Amino acid sequence: MRxxxxxxxxxxxxxALMSIGLELGLSAPASATAMYTYTGNDFTIVxxxxxxxxxxxxxxxxxxxxxxxxxxxxxxxxxxxxxxxDGVQTINLSTPSVAPIATFTTNSAGNITxxxxxxxxxxxxxxxxxxxxxxxxxxxxxxxxxAAGANSSQPGVWTLVSVPxxxxxxLLAVGLVAMAGARRxxx
Length: 187
Prior knowledge:
The chain has 187 residues and is an alpha+beta fold. The chain folds into 2 domains: 2-29 and 166-186; 34-161, no CATH class. The protein has 2 helices and 12 strands, in the order H-E-E-E-E-E-E-E-E-E-E-E-E-H. It has helices at residues 2-27, 166-186, and strands at 34-39, 45-46, 57-62, 73-74, 79-85, 90-92, 101-106, 112-121, 126-132, 137-142, 148-152, 157-161. The strands form 2 sheets. Strands 2-11-10-9-8-7-4 form a 7-stranded antiparallel sheet, with no helix packed on it. Strand 7 (101-106) and strand 8 (112-121) form a beta hairpin. The protein is globular.
């Protein structure tokens, strides 16, 4: 009788935990950070130390993914991290005197179609940027001495790297607890 009661109590606890986990997980807002990467095409115009095998790459983390059907949305207030590399220099949000620009347009699927992302360093006069909009299509990096690498008319690609939202993590944790409890009872 005690074994049966203990087993029923265990099942009730697992059921309660799963119910709570599902309630918390499914009712939590779908808010998660989103990481995007940018891969540009090789530079076509260069001055030393830049070469034609170099390109602009970037990594950007936002507080939330950029939504679908957005037009020229300023994401600077939502930036958690932004780092750009042009084959010679790396500029990021912790670089002194950096003044980021990050505006995006997305299609109905939420894919980035147009953008202007720049990391200019005002006091040292160097910059890395990628732009694909109605005014300019260009990736470039420039040093304070005027040396530069650029690629015009061949924009690269932004890719969303998925980050699990909080509800997924809660559901995973509840499932692991339930499996551990079931295994313990079977041993």
